[in-house]
Write a structure and sequence with these properties.
heterodimer; A: 107 residues; mainly beta; 4-stranded antiparallel beta sheet; B: 118 residues; 7-stranded mixed beta sheet; globular
Chain lengths: 107, 118
């Protein structure tokens, strides 16, 4: 199985801040990577796929980059509704695996 | 728009079989891939497996011996059976759709909490 390591596991930030979350995979997955946002008590929501493609309806302040084993999710200008947990996920091979999550909290 | 709704017992006894159904509304089950994912309380996400409407499937090796999935195109539903459950199977179970085998999970159900307890 491909291991996914996200960092940090949590962070505190203020509205308007630029936030970066990293995801590293244990082997090359090209760009077969997605990012999801999850709010408490809700299902995850797809934000980005193929490492950098914004899902329809997702605000442009979200962006993704990377390929191979190192990936980044950036939120440019954090909004109140962005305080949530974020997960990366690879769909390059089976079993599909997720990062452990990054919780973005209000400073 | 397409919506997914999980349903099934919220409480299952240890050693019994957990059975869940995902009903697809606003769209057809054909031509898409359907996945089950779970999340234990306060923990991360675990992929259980997927099934294509034609019947091809792939399961997580950690659960493979206990998992069965099926698709009912006439009812626009797909199902999960997980046998010999223990407390470690207590989780929120989500169904999700993806448009290709190597695609992200674009649409998710709201999830259903299943507790394994006697």
């Amino acid at each position: 199985a491909i291991w996914m390591t996200q960092s940090p596991s949590s962070l505190s930030a203020s509205t308007g801040d630029r936030v970066t979350i990293a995801c590293r995979t244990s082997q090359d997955i090209s760009t077969y990577l997605a990012w999801y946002q999850q709010k408490p008590g809700k299902a995850p929501k797809l934000l980005i796929y193929t490492a950098s493609t914004l899902q329809s309806g997702v605000p442009s302040r979200f962006s993704g980059s990377g390929s191979g084993t190192d990936f980044t999710l950036t939120i440019s200008g954090l909004q109140y509704e962005d305080f949530a947990s974020y997960y990366c996920q690879q769909y390059y091979s089976y079993p599909r695996t997720f990062g452990q999550g990054t919780k973005v909290e209000i400073k | 728009q397409v919506q997914l709704q999980e349903s099934g017992p919220g409480l299952v006894k240890p050693s019994e079989t957990l059975s869940l159904t995902c009903t697809v509304s606003g769209g057809y089950i054909r031509s898409y891939y359907w996945t089950w994912i779970r999340q234990p309380p306060g923990k991360g996400l675990e992929w259980i497996g997927y099934m294509f409407y034609s019947g091809s499937a792939n399961y997580n090796p950690s659960l493979k011996s206990r998992v069965t999935m099926s698709v009912d195109t006439s009812r626009n539903q797909f199902s999960l059976n997980l046998s010999s459950v223990t407390a470690a199977d207590t989780a929120v179970y989500y169904c999700a759709r993806h448009i290709g085998e190597f695609e992200a999970f674009e649409i998710w159900g709201q999830g259903t909490m299943v507790t394994v307890s006697s």
